[in-house]
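Work Package 3 (structural annotation) set out to generate three-dimensional models for the target panel prioritized at the project kickoff. During this period the team completed the workflow that converts sequence records into discrete structure tokens, so that structures can be stored uniformly alongside our sequence database. As a representative example, we reproduce one entry of 197 residues exactly as it appears in the project archive.
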Amino acid sequence: MIKYQSIIINFLDETSQSIEKKIDKIKAVLLNLNQDGIVWVIVSNYVHNSELVMTSFEVARQFLELKLKNIILVPDFRRLKKGMVFINSTYEILFFTKSETYFFNKDPIREKHIWKDVEWGKRAKNYHELGKDPGNVWLKTEDDGKSRITKHVLLNFNEVIDRLIKSSLKKRSNCLLINLSQIKDSTAEVNIYHESV
């Protein structure tokens, strides 16, 4: 039986009803998560009968046995959803752990400091030498080298998945990606993507 250090569940564009129908199959896979493992759940909100459904909250209720550590917001203007008061141009990633002792390494996903060449050395204690913390809004920036942001850069979906994998896998560990849309019924296989590091 393969044990997983990280499990990524893609619930994008699913409704709460479709998630509930498949949740037992998902939870069965969580039994293979290492004790210090992480579960990432990718979701987006939607409108049903003119009401906003906060899918992230609905999904969080389905995983009460896990510990919710944070919610990451990912801007994505290519997936604009209408029907809300404001057009929805984001999706969320729920960051769950199996226990209070978990493996997470932020260093591989750090970003370039925009202030490095402007004030480096004056307040060096405020900066990590490998780059800045990506925070919980994943929108990269480009700058002019003089600390002025010149462009905001969206991460594509593969880059987001890459960040999740890099930050949550140890050497010689496994990651499982579950794409919910490929789970058609209770007998469907969920091992859609498997990566070992």
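The two ends are 17 Å apart (CA to CA).
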